[in-house]
Amino acid sequence: MTTPPPPGTNPYNQQPPAPAPYGPQGGNPYSVPGPPAPAPRRPRSVKGVLKGVVSLVVIGVVAYGGYTTWFGGAATADAGDCLHAGNAAATGVISVGDPEFEIVDCGDSKAQFKVASRQSGTDGNCDEPYSRYTQGGSGRDFTLCLERLK
Fold it and tell me: How much is the pTM?
């Protein structure tokens, strides 16, 4: 029987194994390391969700207000159209921002004004008894002469 060599000695002059070329020592030499695992998702807070919803609502209101001011209501009205001005008494000169006009059917009970004429520029003249509405900006200046229906 033979006795084992003392610990820490190399009795047969063996070389330590070479590191694996594709991964950690002792692993599969044919495996290729993949991308790192994604970080775990943080749960969304109620405060963050509410801020997002409020932001979307504010953007929507501003966009709708800008659209109706420049591309709807009075901006698209022609002679013969009837208008409803939600918040205007409409006596004398009415300027942009006073009423929020919307085009309505002339038979509708909401119709307050009928467009008698539409003129280019903000310096148009309207004869009595018409009210004058002007809107300008971005090369879309116009004047409406409005006949009061109510």
Answer: 0.47
Helix ranges (H only) for 31-106 are 46-71
Nearest to 112 by CA among 134, 140, 93, 87: 87
Question: How far is residue 25's CA from residue 15's CA, in Å, rounded to a whole number?
Answer: 15
Q: Could you say which residues of the chain have pLDDT below 50?
A: 23, 90-92
Question: Tokens 């047969």 label which residue?
Answer: 12
Q: Which region holds residue 51: left if phi is over 0, alpha if psi is between -120 and 50, else beta? A: alpha
Percentage of the chain lying above the pLDDT 70 cut: 63
Distance, CA of 86 to CA of 71 (rounded, Å): 17
